[in-house]
Amino acid sequence: MPGGMPPGGWQKARLVERRAETATAVTLVFEPDDWPGHLAGQHADIRLTADDGYTAVRSYSMAAPARDGLVEFTIQRVADGEVSTYLCDDLPVGAYAEVRGPIGGWFVWRETDARPVLLLAGGSGIVPLQAMVRHRRAAGSRTPFRLLYSVRTPADVIYADELARPRPGDGGLETAILYTRTAPDGWSRPPARIGLADLTVHGWPPDFDPTCFVCGPNGFVETAAKALIALGHDSHRIKTERFG
After folding, report:
1. Judgement on whether residues 16 and 57 belong to the same structural domain of the protein
2. pTM
3. Which residues of 61-86 are buried (b: 16+ CB within 10 A; e: fewer)?
4. Where are the alpha helices (DSSP H) in 10-55?
5. DSSP state of 121
6. Which run of H or E residues covers position 186?
7. Is the separation of the CB atoms in 104 and 4 below 8 Å?
8. Inter-residue contact 215 to 242 (CB < 8 Å)
9. Rounded Cα–Cα distance for residues 238 and 228 (Å)
10. Low-confidence residues of the chain, pLDDT below 70?
11. Nearest to 214 by CA among 125, 151, 152, 131
12. d(CA 237, CA 46)
């Protein structure tokens, strides 16, 4: 199943931890009844059931490798979103939801792949890419990673502390944050959307033949993928995942 086989059935999952990441993003850690494990980049379905039997299902990327049978999601609150709003604001620690997964076998990174990796994240698209960073760290991999994170303002940076402070095992990981609306005082790059110059400065040269993972809103993914191709990257090594 972690390699992309169809997911198993629904299982109960108890919320054991809640962490605020930003004003609109929350990390939720669940303990399912019998989680089979997952790969970095995969996602799962979460189902909520109301007292009257009404159900709602949404898919969310896992934010970290499985540890001790726990599954971690970082969820961005969507305006008027019935599921994200409830998960972010109302589901108490100790309560239950249902999960089904893991799902997906293409947008994943395995530590056995030594090819350089370029991660391009837009907004909450950082979640599955940060799972890859965390898996690399946990596996003790030395595969060269470069992460470019496009985000509106400093207040919108998910995992801000982790991104700002290298952790043991982060050797060979380079991170660049690209602000689109407001940058910190003294920031060398003025606010702007991701462009060819950013990929030239912070990305891998095409002749390094890196694997590129791009995740974010539709517009970001389209722009980033087209820029990678324009720079000469192999389209077969550009993997995209989008939302919105």
Report:
1. yes
2. 0.94
3. bbbbbbeeebbbbbbbbbeeeebbee
4. none
5. E
6. none
7. yes
8. yes
9. 8
10. 1-8, 244
11. 125
12. 30
Rg (CA), the chain: 18
The secondary element (H helix, E strand) that includes residue 20 is: strand 11-20
Tens of pLDDT, residues 59-107? 999 999 988 999 999 999 998 888 999 999 999 999 999 999 999 999 9
- Other CB atoms within a 10 A radius of the CB of residue 135 amount to 22
The domain that contains 59 carries what CATH number?
2.40.30.10
CATH number of the CATH domain containing 145: 3.40.50.80
Taking the C-alpha atoms of residue 218 and residue 165, their distance in angstroms, rounded to an integer, is: 30
∠ at Cα 21 (15, 24), nearest 5°? 95
Separation CA 50–CA 56 (nearest Å): 9
Q: Per-residue pLDDT tens for 36-67? A: 999 999 999 999 998 898 999 999 999 999 88
Q: Which of 57, 78, 103 is the last residue of a domain?
A: 103
Please provide the distance, in angstroms rounded to a whole number, between the alpha carbons at the two ends of the chain.
27
Q: Which structural domain range is residue 133 located in?
A: 117-243
* C-alpha torsion sign, points 195, 219, 130, 7: negative
CB 123 within 8 A of CB 150: yes
Task: Give pLDDT, residue 74.
Answer: 98
Exposed / middle / buried, residue 192 (Cβ in 10 Å: 0-12, 13-18, 19+): middle
Give 85's contacts (C-beta < 8 A, 6+ positions apart).
Answer: 77, 78
Whether the Cβ atoms of residue 57 and residue 151 lie closer than 8 Å to each other: no
Q: Round to whole Å and give the CA distance between 55 and 57.
A: 7
